[in-house]
Amino acid sequence: MPQYTILVVEDDEILGNNICTSLQRHGWGAQLASSSEDALQMLGKMHPDIVLTDLNLPGITGIELIGRVRDADPDAKVILMTGDGNVQTAVDAMKAGAYDYLSKPLVLAELKLLIERALDARRMEKTLSFYQNREARDAGLAALLGNSPPIQAMKTMIRQLLDAEAHMAANDLPVVLIGGETGTGKELVARALHVDGVRGDGPFVEVNCASIPSHLLEAELFGHEKGAFTDARERRAGLVEAAEGGTLFLDEIGEIDLALQAKLLKLLEERSIRRLGSVKEIKVNLRIVSATNRDLEKMVREGKFRSDLYYRLHIITVNVPPLRARGDDIALLARHFLTLHARRYGKAGLEFNADALKVLKGYGWPGNVRELRNMLEQTVLLAAGKVITPNQLAICPGLSGPCDRDFHTLDSYCMSVPSNGVSVPEVERDLVIKMLDKTDWNVTKSARLLGLTRDMLRYRIEKLGLERPEH
Ligand SMILES: Nc1ncnc2c1ncn2[C@@H]1O[C@H](COP(=O)(O)OP(=O)(O)OP(=O)(O)O)[C@@H](O)[C@H]1O
């Protein structure tokens, strides 16, 4: 199925069919409507990316149709084909909300270029609205709960940084590297820097460098020209361009390979990119924040991470403390997530008893805040009464106390073999779900921690019919 669809509205059937054939030859889906009325009916079923309409149509005119399409499907881009070359018509079309216009007789190469541009714009808007919707759900620093000394010290440092940045030029903000174990809240910190900072009105574009295979990451980041590689059927802007005026958050920066590291260095140094297959430099104006749970210094020593990139990335470093070092914040966060999940599952009034709080505080939390949140979801789901006791907490009692083990070791500690037998497929399912929860459905990371390849894990996710739960 073609990735993009175009609805052509043209009452001259021969011309309309010719346009559709030409568009299909470029790999786009195209359908013909011979009147505006037909087009409006097809709109609901087809949800085209682009509506290419003639001006002079019987019944509803092309200009009127533009407004109707904008009302019915605001995401579709409308291009008007005008026969008269009249400037006023073009102005009316743009006022009505057209993306652009073309004069007849059509030059197919021009039409193709215009459609590529409109598709680019549409893709970019989609990306931005996705990120902006996500962003709207989260506040800035206020969303980072916790009053323990290490969290307070971190928040103070962030506030000082934001204060200093308020007096700086927006395109001169220092690059920030956020460090900390998995699940500590690095992404929340990155969002806080964005939302509470001078670029708060711009987009926040997050790229998880670990979840995109490295051969695709470059194209995702920098975009590509048509034909730059086998699958590059369209010209596409990358996520760096999508972050223009806002923040580019490179999560799990330690996972990118050395070749791409060189390109990132260029972005940081020259603030410009080149789409794959293009010779044109595009200047970008954005703030770069990155995060990692890896020891980048060690990676530099081992030759796995470029030292020049490392020095560029960590001009300012924010270290997010592990949950086990946050004392009373554990109880505060636990109560917060208990209330949150209880509301979701319609189980108001849940509370921990004193022993449960003691167990929570004494546990090592290798998966940090994410583990606490996920664990409590299960607790709430299974809770029969109002009071949560230690045995309702899905943590391994043997792990109470500081924990410095990795996931592999941890899970092997959690294994017990019931005397009435165990089903291996069930264990497999359980293990996959637990690991995906632990990594917030980061397939690459889960695969690594399970000792599988990404494809093997993907296969299992499909086979087991697993879907990421909505939060
Ligand atoms: N201080 C906090 N207050 C409230 N929620 C928090 C806090 N810290 C983390 N969380 C929540 O815990 C979860 C994990 O946080 P986040 O994704 O920011 O961690 P991370 O360090 O970026 O993880 P990873 O290293 O795996 O990418 C999220 O749901 C986040 O909202």
Automatic annotation (TrEMBL):
UniProt cross-references to PROSITE patterns, sorted A to Z: RESPONSE_REGULATORY, SIGMA54_INTERACT_1, SIGMA54_INTERACT_2, SIGMA54_INTERACT_3, SIGMA54_INTERACT_4
Domain Sigma-54 factor interaction: 144-381
UniProt keyword Nucleotide-binding present: yes
InterPro entries linked: AAA+_ATPase, AAA_lid_NorR, CheY-like_superfamily, Homeodomain-like_sf, HTH_Fis, P-loop_NTPase, Sig_transdc_resp-reg_receiver, Sigma_54_int
Response regulatory domain span: 5-119
Modified residues (4-aspartylphosphate): 54
Keywords: ATP-binding, DNA-binding, Nucleotide-binding, Phosphoprotein, Transcription, Transcription regulation
UniProt keyword Endoplasmic reticulum, yes or no: no
Record-given protein name: Response regulator
